[in-house]
Design goal:
The chain has about 325 residues and is α/β, with parallel strands linked by helices. The chain has 10 helices and 15 strands. The chain has a single domain (about 10-315), classed as Ribokinase (UDP-N-acetylmuramoyl-L-alanine:D-glutamate ligase, 3-Layer(aba) Sandwich), CATH 3.40.1190. Strands 1, 4, 5, 6, 9, 10, 11, 12, 13, 14 and 15 form an 11-stranded mixed beta sheet that branches. The chain has a 4-stranded mixed beta sheet with strand order 3-2-7-8. Helix 4 (about 155-165) runs parallel beside helix 5, helix 8 (about 255-270) packs antiparallel against helix 9 (about 275-290) and helix 9 packs across helix 10 (about 300-305). It is globular and about 50 Å long.
């Protein structure tokens, strides 16, 4: 495994994990009778997915957050299989189930997300202590905030981690993202809809996306990545803006594609890649995610091969290989 001077390369934090029940339903129609041709159940949550992908790539990963004591088995099994150090804080109750309905005819995924298990202020203090004890170069904070936890939690956690000299990637939305913008996270990864919501105005064209992302850079982020699904993703720093355009691929599920991209961004930084190569690698991670159901990578070699198929353009330029 790759090693840095830290005990772990990366620690991921998932405050609101879920057991993902993924149903494949050809021709899914709301309000009608639908028949699933396949169902899969696996441990999920954005930070959990990030941890699984990074471990598959070869990094030494710890994962923490909250898990309900009543149903930890799927998570324990995942972490053991992937060689991820399980540092989750157990709280009373059961971890929520999230329903994913995948329509292979359209390539669309419908999410039904439950609110999650409530965490108390005492639970949060135990988690903070756990996070302080995890020696890692990078920390990924990802996902929604469970009941009982203030929306400003990510802002506070980023400040705490930066004071420890850690590098932080943040992937969340809504009020938790809004409140954390000025906290100094190194990487922010909103999708284009989340960016529009964050700024309170439509963000659609390339110029609008780059200007909006750069406004977040001016507020403290070093890199803002704006994902647009099949249209690619913009990678924007204070002096560069790169569009990574993936090739057309057969989509098995879009679940976890954004999480895989976050993992790829962190992997690229650990490997000290420049922005263009970071964009290629992160997009390749996402391509692997849409080609399968469940988080993970086929192999490091396959991911690097996929990265070679990603086209790049700088702001104002045509797509180039």
């Amino acid at each position: 495994m790759m090693k840095t001077d830290s005990q772990y390369d990366v620690a991921t934090v998932t405050l609101n994990p879920a057991i993902d029940l993924t149903m494949t339903v050809p021709g899914f129609a709301a309000g009608g009778v639908n028949r699933a041709v396949q169902t899969l159940t696996h441990a999920g949550g954005k930070g959990v997915n990030v941890a699984a992908v990074l471990a598959d790539y070869g990094f030494w990963v710890a994962a923490t957050g909250f898990l309900g004591r009543e149903n930890t088995g799927l998570f324990d099994g995942l972490f053991e299989r992937r060689g991820i150090d399980n540092k989750f804080v157990r709280i009373p109750g059961a971890t929520r189930t999230g329903i994913k309905i995948v329509d292979p005819n359209t390539g669309q995924t419908t999410d039904i997300n439950l609110p999650g298990q409530e965490a108390t202020s005492a639970d949060m203090e135990i988690l903070r202590q756990q996070m302080r004890s995890l020696d890692s170069e990078w920390v990924v904070l990802a996902g929604s905030v469970p009941p009982g936890v203030p929306a400003g939690v990510y802002r506070d956690l980023v400040v705490m981690l930066k004071q420890q000299g850690r590098r932080v990637a943040l992937d969340t939305s809504g009020d938790p993202l809004q409140l954390a913008i000025d906290s100094g996270a190194d990487v922010l990864k909103p999708n284009v809809a989340e960016l529009s919501d964050l700024l309170g105005e439509p963000v659609a064209t390339a110029d609008q996306i780059v200007r909006a992302a750069r406004s977040l850079v001016r507020r403290g982020a070093k890199l803002v990545v704006v994902s647009q699904g099949a249209a690619g993703a913009w990678f924007v720093s204070d002096d560069e803006a790169v569009l990574a355009k993936p090739p057309a691929v057969e989509v098995a599920s879009t679940v976890g594609a954004g999480d895989a991209m976050v993992a790829g961004i962190v992997a690229a930084h650990l490997d000290e890649l420049d922005l263009g190569d970071c964009a290629r690698l992160a997009t390749a991670f996402s391509l692997e995610a849409v080609g399968r159901v469940g988080a993970g990578l086929a192999s490091r070699a396959n991911t690097l091969k996929l990265a070679e198929t990603v086209q790049l353009a700088r702001a104002g330029e045509a797509i180039c290989i």
